[in-house]
Amino acid sequence: MEVGVDLVEIGRIRALARRNPKFLRRVFSPAEIAYCRAKKDPWPHFAVRFAAKEAVYKALGRADVPLTAISVRRGRDGRPAVSLRGRPAPALKLSLSHGREHAVAFAVRAR
């Protein structure tokens, strides 16, 4: 079993996106952007997905998987799910949480 965890400041993600409008498109899939933008306050949702991508990257333990290849979505059961390069990654499990200032993600990869 491999694990990965990441903690992100929500304000940092908001500031990056405002400073560099291309940031969101370079990191998130169109579906992730649409999901987050549909929320009243999209920034915690962007931040937790960014944390999830980092946590998955760490759990994979491979440098050849760019963040853009990792996509976070809601599964049929409402739980967070991961796709790698457009394909479901059932061996990866996620736990996501966010508060006012921080977002955290924990990823577990079964071997």
Main β-sheet, spatial strand arrangement = 1-6-5
Helix and strand succession? EHHHHEEEEE
**CA-to-CA gap between the ends?**
5 Å
CATH class: Alpha Beta
Task: Give me the CATH architecture, please.
Answer: Alpha-Beta Complex
Overall pLDDT, averaged?
A: 93
Q: What name goes with the CATH superfamily?
A: 4'-phosphopantetheinyl transferase domain
| Global outline | globular
Most strands sheet: 3 strands, antiparallel
DSSP, total strands? 6
Describe the structure.
It is a single chain. By secondary structure, the chain is an alpha+beta fold. β2 (70-74) and β3 form a beta hairpin. The protein is built from 4 helices and 6 strands. It has one domain: Ribosomal Protein L22, Chain A. The mean pLDDT is 93.
Keyword list:
111 residues; alpha+beta; Ribosomal Protein L22, Chain A; three-stranded antiparallel sheet; 4 helices; 6 strands; 37% helix; globular
What's the short version?
Helices cover 37% and strands 32% of the residues. The mean pLDDT is 93.
Topology summary:
Elements: E1 2-9, H1 10-19, H2 23-27, H3 30-37, H4 43-60, E2 70-74, E3 80-84, E4 87-88, E5 92-98, E6 102-109
Antiparallel strand pairs: 1-6, 2-3, 3-4, 5-6
Helix pairs in contact: 1-4, 3-4
